[in-house]
């Protein structure tokens, strides 16, 4: 299909695509009614204004309460100064700003070359991505954490590493999963950045302990170890190694621990290869994939950590692979096995997103810089003269325009702008995820939470 060449044709195409995306998101996906944000708001509001205990609050009519470390509540405490609707609006603005920053960092500003037309199509593509849809409609914090981590990646890439580690440290204090990036810094022998990240995490946790000593004591001694507070391990939205095993009926922690150690071993080998090649974007992408796999619970909205991996795929010239995998993550396909994940089809289908995450961990290209030919549009490649023998064989992506296609194509720039080596100094009624399995669980069209 030949793309439109006039502004009028492009506008009509954008309007048609936007209408299709709107129709899809209004009918196919689950809409979450800001459920997680209402958990945050209710817990913080009760804690600040009514002297309640932070981890005792439950959304009325549900079994869901606050599950993050106490510092997250301290960071969210300004919500207690505003109403719920204002908090929802602020969450939307913050998530949109974080997404814009993430897109800028992953594409190294390449989105500017595509103008309003490419940006509009890219926004439509992002709106289809199920982890993003869930993050926005739950009112989740995933994008903010990813942005903090990617800012650190950019600082490390460009050699401006005086403050590197602060973003990772703050993210790890809000939610434990990003702490795996501290291990990446140690693997990369960036000891100063690792120390900064660890110090920031400890300082933030200590601050929370001073502000909320009872809540801190309860979280670190009881709540942290009680996975039932978060949700059922076998719930179809849990796309981690633990989720796969739970849907198989295997609850043996030793089996899960062995699987985690195996994945961590693969990550260490592949991340080290990326680090040796000076490929920070791939190292950070591999670490995000690993975090999703080894976490006991990885809800679908946590899979925004896959976005850096898609940027790496596109940068390496694997646009069709990136597009195909991205499309699968737009379909909400795992919910087809909401009621019954038994059998071969249930094993394969209900874990679709986990298989994609695992496949990316195993086969994500590392150490591959984008070639000039790979980044030029096909028509340009067909007519461009052969390069001279003196011409460099590998050129930065930022020096070549790319085709203004969808969200993943916009990542054709060198992800995070890295060209430096690494190792010389990365509804109110939830779906029942926390409830005992029932013989006839609720429909997948019901409002959902993680």
Written description of the protein model:
The chain has helices at residues 7-27, 35-49, 70-76, 84-107, 115-128, 130-138, 142-158, 166-174, 180-187, 191-211, 213-221, 241-247, 253-276, 280-294, 307-315, 319-328, 343-349, 352-363, 372-375, 378-383. The relative contact order is 0.14. It is built from 20 helices and no strands.
Average pLDDT number: 81
Count of individual beta strands: 0
- Topology as H/E string? HHHHHHHHHHHHHHHHHHHH
- As residue ranges, the low-confidence spans are 372-414, 419-450
- From the spread of the alpha carbons, the general shape counts as globular
Question: What is the number of helical segments per DSSP (H or I, 4+ residues)?
Answer: 20
Major sheet: size, sense and barrel closure? Answer: none
| Distance between the amino and carboxyl termini | 40 Å
Helix content: 55-70%
Oligomer: single chain
Structural class: mainly alpha
Beta-strand content bin: under 5%
Radius of gyration, whole Å: 22 Å
Characteristic key phrases:
450 residues; mainly alpha; 20 helices; 0% strand; disordered C terminus
What is this structure, in a nutshell?
The protein has helices spanning 7-27, 35-49, 70-76, 84-107, 115-128, 130-138, 142-158, 166-174, 180-187, 191-211, 213-221, 241-247, 253-276, 280-294, 307-315, 319-328, 343-349, 352-363, 372-375, 378-383. By secondary structure, it is mainly alpha-helical.
């Amino acid at each position: 299909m030949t793309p439109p060449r006039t502004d009028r044709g492009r506008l009509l195409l954008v309007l048609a695509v936007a209408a299709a995306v709107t129709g899809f998101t209004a009918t196919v996906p689950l809409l979450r009614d800001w459920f997680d944000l209402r958990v945050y708001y209710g817990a913080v509001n009760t804690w600040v204004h009514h002297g309640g205990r932070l981890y005792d609050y439950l959304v009325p009519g549900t079994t869901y309460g606050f599950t993050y470390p106490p510092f997250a509540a301290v960071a969210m405490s300004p919500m207690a100064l505003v109403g719920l609707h204002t908090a929802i609006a602020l969450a939307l603005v913050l998530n949109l700003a974080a997404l814009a920053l993430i897109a800028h960092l992953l594409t190294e500003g390449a989105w500017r070359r595509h103008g309003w037309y490419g940006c509009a199509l890219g926004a439509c593509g992002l709106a289809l991505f199920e982890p993003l849809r869930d993050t926005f409609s739950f009112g989740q914090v995933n994008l903010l954490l990813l942005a903090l981590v990617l800012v650190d990646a950019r600082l490390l890439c460009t050699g401006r590493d005086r403050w590197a580690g602060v973003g990772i440290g703050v993210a790890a204090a809000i939610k434990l999963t990003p702490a795996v990036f501290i291990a990446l810094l140690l693997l990369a022998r960036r000891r100063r950045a690792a120390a900064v990240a660890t110090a920031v995490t400890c300082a933030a946790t200590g601050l929370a302990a001073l502000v909320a000593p009872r809540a801190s004591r309860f979280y670190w001694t009881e709540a942290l170890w009680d996975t039932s507070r978060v949700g059922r391990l076998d719930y179809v939205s849990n796309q981690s190694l633990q989720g796969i095993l739970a849907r198989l009926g295997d609850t043996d922690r030793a089996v899960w621990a062995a699987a985690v150690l195996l994945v961590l071993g693969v990550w260490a080998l592949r991340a080290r290869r990326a680090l040796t090649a000076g490929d920070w974007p791939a190292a950070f992408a591999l670490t995000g994939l690993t975090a999703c796999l080894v976490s006991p619970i990885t809800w679908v909205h946590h899979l925004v950590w896959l976005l850096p991996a898609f940027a790496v795929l596109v940068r390496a010239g694997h646009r069709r692979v990136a597009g195909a995998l991205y499309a699968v993550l737009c379909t909400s396909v795992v919910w087809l096995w909401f009621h019954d994940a038994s059998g071969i089809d249930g094993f394969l289908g209900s874990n679709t997103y986990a298989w994609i995450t695992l496949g990316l961990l195993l086969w994500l290209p590392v150490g591959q810089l984008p070639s000039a030919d790979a980044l030029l549009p096909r028509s340009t490649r067909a007519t461009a003269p052969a390069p001279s023998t003196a011409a460099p064989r590998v050129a930065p992506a930022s020096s070549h325009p790319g085709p203004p296609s969808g969200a993943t194509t916009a990542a054709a720039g060198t992800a995070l702008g890295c060209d430096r080596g690494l190792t010389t100094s990365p509804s109110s009624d939830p779906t029942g995820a926390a409830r005992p399995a029932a013989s006839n669980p609720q429909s997948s069209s019901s409002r959902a939470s993680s």
